[in-house]
Input
Amino acid sequence: MKKVYADPTTALAGLLKNDMMVMCGGFGLCGIPDELIEAVRESGVKGLTIVSNNAGIDGVGLGKLLDTRQVSKMISSYVGENKEFARQYLGGELEIEFNPQGTLAERIRAGGAGIPAFFTKTGVGTKVAEGKEVREFDGEHFVMERGLFADLALIHAHTGDTEGNLRYRKTARNFNPMMATAATMTVAQVEHLVKPGEIDADDIHTPGIFVKRIIHVPGREKRIEQRTVRKRAEAAPAAAGGGQI
Output
């Protein structure tokens, strides 16, 4: 089956519809499928439920979909970098389902593994547990969380072959591998597209069976969410006598 598509719009053709659930990989701006997000924005679909660790920053990544009011609900664990997100939430325009980060990761992993629900100690006795079943195991209380399975997963990988096998790079691995397994349709953008066999079998993080469509995005801009710098330390004075060690 041909998996490589010419561009993001073509790769998403026939997949997008109003009110669907979309998983979007990345952490902040690291490992986000920005080209695919842009194609979703251009499609004009509305009422989206987005599963993502966060919503990027204003005007970048998922922030673009907030600007165009295409998102009705976010299932996330952190949203502190996006002012438009905060404005819509506080104004009652956006529904948010907050999750502890580990719980969100496990909900996605469970969905990909076909597990409908699981119990965790995280959130017991807090607002996170309100309205959810709490059960006792071995003298301790656990809250039940539901697995997540989306209509569509949009992910980013460093390297992919034409059969859909993917390899992620460093922290850009984050939520991408588990999301690739937890949707009816997974579309990946890859920085380096190679032939089958060029990714060593031991280095494949997502098997191609999970990936249905691929686009090649070489030379993409990699933005930094927050740049923190400090003044360079003054050089230490040379040792007296100029001796060498």
Q: What stands out?
A: The two ends are 63 Å apart (CA to CA). The first helix runs from residue 8 to 11.
